[in-house]
Amino acid sequence: MPVPVPRQRAIPAVECGQAPAASPDSGPSTEQAPPGTHPAENLAGRRENPTEKREKPTDTSPETSTGPGTSTSPGPGTDTGTGTGTGTGTGRTHSGRTESAVPTNLTVLLIEDDPAGSPIVPDLLDQAGKPIRVRTARNLTEAGRLLTDDVHCILLDLALSAPAPARTGTVTDAGGNGDGAAEGEDELAVLRHVLELAPRHAVLALTSSSDAERGAEAVAVGAQDYLFRDELDGRLLSRAIRYAVERKRSDSAERRLAEGRLRAQENRRLERGLLPTPLLAGSPLRFAARYRPGRSRALLGGDFYDVVRTPDGTVHAMIGDVCGHGPDEAALGVELRIAWRALTLAGLCGDQLLGTLQQVLEHERSDDEIFATLCAVDISPDGRRAGLCLAGHPSPLLSRPGMPARLLPYDNNGPALGLLPGARWPRMQVELGAEWSLMLYTDGLIEGHVGGGRERLGQDGMVEMVRRQLAEGLTGEELLRATVNEVRELNGGELADDLAVVLLDRTA
Length: 508
Prior knowledge:
- The chain is of the alpha+beta class.
- The chain is built from 8 helices and 18 strands.
- A 6-stranded mixed β-sheet has the order 1-5-4-6-7-8.
- Helix 3 links the parallel strand 7 (202-207) and strand 8.
């Protein structure tokens, strides 16, 4: 007939890796029972050392006798479900000692203070019938040592004394208990401490059947469930542990999902706030823009644009592109846009403005090889003329009634910002006429592929596309929407690079 395994045993910390091994002169680490008796019979009168830990076996496999009064049942320092009597595999303890091990799916940490060592947790089996490993801690200090990554659930006896806050002149014992001055002020202080100690672990609160209200309060504070200590049985507790673990996993996943959604919403609000708001109050010009970052799920890329009207009636428009399309490039693009607006409102224009903007780029970029292209246009108050400065950027597209759309001259195109220290950017004078439409764009619009080959749309292909759409009567937002959609269709899907397009219209 199998001999039942004792439910509670005092386990020296030395054998589980929590303390240094004893020297040979200090005597054996386990007590030898008198002949004819079981080793567990002497444990009741044994004085427990505060540095020891106890673990509760739940495996009821038969023990293998090795002689009178000896047994190979799980000894001190072994986890529940491991021992020489099981023989289903080998494992290695924290100290490197090889021993047999029973595979277990769940590990439970029981935190309860019972000097008599009375068993309050029955034998536990998981859903597959394998033993659930139970570790026992007598106070929160010992629980902190035993709370390893392989622990899935914590059984907390709410009757455990809570640690008192540290005070001047108050001596705290090894169990984390002080003079008890704060004891009783918060009946769930021990639970709050455990939740703070193990925020990712499921917690089951154990209370008496006469104190159901306290158990409900424990769930409200953060425990996954509560059970009556005097009504426990193996089947109920095993099922409650599994449910608590799954509930904790579900709650954690839901919380991470909610945090991710909130973070995404905050990022979107931030990125929307970084996109420009044109300052065109009092101007007869109409404005439209389209913006598509190359990064997936992003609202902001390395392209940037802005339009402002200065007090003299001049309308200044700008579009630029930082090399690359990651978050660092997006941040640099925002800095350049804000700097351009500030310099423009301060009265700078043309070569002087671009030279100052290059200094900003050189100070803010993270690498000396980062550069930015830029196209700046200043339109006279009467709207008939414009000054054009190009810094390594594609030339704008101008269309007028009765004339085919064409690119503005780019013979005096200067270098991109950040390439040549002390560079110059000449300002070209352009005649616009009484009625016109001016489109500024980044290279993301012209570098998309055409069909399945390696051929790109290019500036010539873009000009032909816009001409056709203008002939169909498209203007403003409709023109930009149709242009961007057709470029994406020709590319066979989303564009790899950032894309920005600005359209300014003037009607007679």
